[in-house]
Amino acid sequence: MTRLGLLIDVTKCNGCYNCFLACRDEHYGNDYSPYSAAQPAEGHFWMQVKEIERGTYPKVKVHHLPIPCMHCETAPCIEAAADGAVYRRDDGIVLIDPRKAKGQRAIVSACPYRVIFWNEDLSIPQKCTLCAHRLDAGDKEPRCVEACPTGALQFGDLADPQSEISYLAAVLGPEVYHPEYETKPLVKYVGIPKRFVAGEVVRADLPGECAEGVAVVLEGGGVTLQTQTDSYGDFEFEGLEKDVFYVLRVQQEGYAPRTLEVFTRTDLNLGRIVLERV
Ligand code: SF4
Ligand code: SF4
Fold first, then answer.
1. What is the atom index within ligand 2 of the atom nearest the CA of 8?
2. DSSP code for 222
3. Average pLDDT, stretch 176-205?
């Protein structure tokens, strides 16, 4: 059984939008029926690149998350469509039949990922096809994958243990975007941003000197993490779970330890943590 999908490495995406532009170039004004009708000039993002800004100044991070149709194995769009207007091919690709889907606006709102777009002129729902028309014509990969300069997008057969995408998935341990939707996507991710806690340690008696090498411990959610401040006195814990209470301890010999409670509802910049001499 073939299961074509994508492995998207968020840590490699630089936000160049080449994938979005290649998708537009492939589909805008081009009718590939029965795979897809022509994409309109405006309002459609079959491959979106979502910019995610995290933290507060000066501890700010920006990530880019490419978001196509997830080609779900349990696809609400298929269930919402009448007359088999949305269907899954034997290779796992989920397609919208432009002829059968005419007038079926309910298909748009059925997708929890919001990756189906309504074409007002044609009165049809439309989305990413993984360039099924190209694959059937003998191409090796969708246009977005071909256009990505960083290797952030990998395409292949997730059901074939010998495929490169399966190898990478086994090594990198892919995640699902919004697992709570429970749709079993064939688009997997690596490096989806989680939460970070960062700050700066200063010593009250040495105000002009960076507090390098101070021990910082973060405990919570069943784990204990440890680090040391860098040469600027900064520290950071990355990849933390959301909505977890942690206790942060900052300690150095000769100084009173500091303890702070933090909750990872958002990314946290704790600012300056001052150590006093004992
Ligand atoms: S991401 Fe949305 S449009 Fe794509 S298969 Fe899943 S439910 Fe359907
Ligand atoms: S082409 Fe690649 S690097 Fe550029 S935005 Fe898309 S996924 Fe990211």
1. 7
2. T
3. 97
Q: Is the pTM of this model over 0.85?
A: yes
> Atom 7 in ligand 1: which residue has the minimum CA distance?
111
The ligand that comes nearest to the alpha carbon of residue 111 is 1
Confidence class for position 187, pLDDT limits 50, 70, 90: very high
Ligand 2: does its nearest atom lie under 6 Å from the Cβ of 215? no
Bridge partners, 52 (sequence order): 63
Strand 195-203 vs strand 124-126: parallel, antiparallel, or unpaired? unpaired
152 alpha-carbon distance from chain centroid: 11
Residues 6+ apart with CB under 8 A from 196: 54, 55, 59, 61, 236, 237, 238, 239, 240, 267, 268
- pLDDT band at 77; cut points 50, 70, 90: very high
Instruction: Tell me which residues have their CB closer than 6 angstroms to ligand 1.
Output: 69-72, 75-77, 94, 111, 113, 115-116, 127, 183
Closest CA to 59 of 267, 231, 225, 266: 267
Q: What is the pLDDT of residues 241-265, one digit of tens each?
A: 999 999 999 999 999 999 999 999 9
Atom of ligand 1 nearest to the CA of 70: 1
- Band of the pLDDT at 15, cuts 50, 70, 90? very high
For residue 255, the model assigns a pLDDT of 98
Supply the residue whose CA is at minimum distance from atom 6 of ligand 2: 19
Q: Is 183 in the pocket of ligand 2 (CB under 6 A)?
A: no
With 0-12 / 13-18 / 19 or more C-beta atoms within 10 angstroms meaning exposed / middle / buried, residue 21 is middle
Interval 214-220 mean pLDDT: 98
The response to whether residue 194 sits with its C-beta less than 6 Å from ligand 2 reads no
**Residue 78 contacts residue 88 (beta carbons within 8 Å):** yes
